[in-house]
Amino acid sequence: MSHVLASRKERPWWRDAVTYQIYIRSFADSNGDGIGDVEGIRSRLPYLKQLGVDAIWITPWYPSPQNDHGYDVSDYMDIEPQYGTLADAEKLIKATHEHGLKFIVDIVPNHTSDQHKWFQAALKAAPGSPERDRYMFCDGKGPNGDLPPNNWEAVFGGCAWERVIEADGKPGQWYLHLFAIEQPDLNWENPEVRSHLEDVLKFWLDRGVDGFRIDVAHGMVKYPGLPDIPEVNTTSEMLAPHERPFWDQEGVHDIYRSWRKILDSYPGERMAVAEAWVSPASRIARYVRADELQNSFNFEMLTTLWNAAEIRAKIDNSMQALVEVGAPPSWVFNNHDVVRSVDRLDLGLTNNGESTFTRQGDPAKFNIARGTLRAKSANLMTLALPGGTYLYQGEELGLPEVRDLPEDRLTDPRWKMSGYKDRGRDGCRVPLPWKSEPTGGFGFSTNELLELDQAWLPMSPWMGNFSAESQDGVAGSTLTIYRQALALRKLEEGLGDGPMTWIEAGKDVVAFSRPGNFACYINFGAAIEIPSGAKVLISSGALEGNLLPTDTAVWLRVNS
Ligand code: GLC
Ligand code: CA
């Protein structure tokens, strides 16, 4: 790479930001009802500032019946009453900026809630009406239209079509829902849909947000005629990277080109990041071409095994594809949709199971000490790689997956739609433990009387061991290492965006250097020697003399 990069201060913030994902329902509860909220976030801004992140991203906070916890939006221009008011939201955006942090909201353009006024109007209107045209309504197949229009399956399981009852009381048309039944897909061929979502962007840009995380960014446009797909047997195949008539269609890029113009029409560096589950990496790169979006999550680390060769190859693939379009990588090791990395990296889970067992692995084999060390090492690796990273609340605490949620408390639509085979994603969405004592759900809630099982998802008694309080100031804790690494990262001009060079250090080692005589080593095999003369800046675990033990990562200042 020969191009000269602007210094950290001069380049756009989104090229190397560390963005903290807040799952609003589970972050902090300010009014004691056991549900996280907007004011709760505001009360924790000092914590986020001290952690050292650059930006926060809030999962959907709009009015919603919460069938998919906010990813079913019933009004894009207001705040869910459980979470607060629009005035609270404006106050939070302002306070976030006062703390020197950027603010990203989640936008859900592929589908609305079935409670959105547009969908309610569509249900009441006749087939062929303008109201129905905002969604994907079709007649069924078979003599009475009794069969779904095609064979598409919902990502959460089951048929992707739901039949409605018409005004005459008889079963009539079908509507498409790629996700839950309560999440009807919008029709992006309809100009009103396009212009409304543009107004939504402007509504939030006017309120000062710095960016958007675009939900299911690869799904809005469907192939004309909605053709059948080759036989699909499993949910993971539905999400498979193979060509699908509803994923990664050419038309989505037109939408992003028009959105980019809107972003650029505002002062400051406004951005958007795509949630596009597409592969190979060259397809991801298409979302971040110069006239489209700024970031697209590199999800490959959500499916990786803890294996040096695989991780090296994934880094290489992502970087090569992005360099061609001049975009920075955006690394992700955790989010609200996957089993937490402490468990995943230990058990070798690749996030594409159909059942609880394939998704969450065998608890009897889980070695939490090893998983924690691997997750810490993964954090040091991503913070040293070129580009930015997105971290998910609780990742900085090394929080493991919560596996002991009672079945009658599971809320993820995946649980029901999989025919109760897959417990779904609730295990990574349990409220955060802030304090070591169980009072108020380990400090999640201001309500001291709140019992652990009165939080919206029950908290487990062991969670106090992972609280922010119990790790604060403790040498070697996940929180301490995260804080130290972020502080160092700010000082190291060579980190973030910019070049990296692989270091050859054996087949079980991932090692690379960055400008400024900086090197990062992650050891996946037997202990290796740290290069002589190198100074250790930080390590994810204890070192043995000048040996780097297995599963451990270090940042080094090396000899020039
Ligand atoms: C995205 C979200 C996920 C949600 C789905 C449907 O994948 O991350 O949580 O269920 O979209 O909106
Ligand atoms: Ca609350």
Kindly, what is the distance between the CA atoms of the first and last residues, rounded to a whole number of angstroms? 20 Å
Average pLDDT over all residues: 95
Q: Give the CATH class of the largest domain.
A: Alpha Beta
Are any ligands bound, and if so which?
Answer: alpha-D-glucopyranose, calcium ion
Helix content: 25-40%
Derived from helix and strand composition plus strand pairing, the structural class reads alpha/beta
| β-sheet strand percentage | 5-15%
CATH topology of the largest domain: TIM Barrel
CATH architecture of the largest domain: Alpha-Beta Barrel
Beta-strand segment tally? 18
Number of H/I helices: 17
Structure, explained:
This protein is α/β, with parallel strands linked by helices and 560 residues long. The protein has 3 domains: 13-113 and 191-402, TIM Barrel; 117-176, Oligo-1,6-glucosidase, Domain 2 (Oligo-1,6-glucosidase, domain 2, Alpha-Beta Complex); 499-557, Immunoglobulin-like (Sandwich). Helix content is 27%, strand content 13%. The strands form 4 sheets. It has an 8-stranded parallel beta sheet with strand order 9-8-7-3-2-1-11-10. The protein is globular and about 80 Å long. It binds alpha-D-glucopyranose (GLC) and calcium ion. Residues 29-31, 33, 35, 37 line the site of calcium ion (CA).
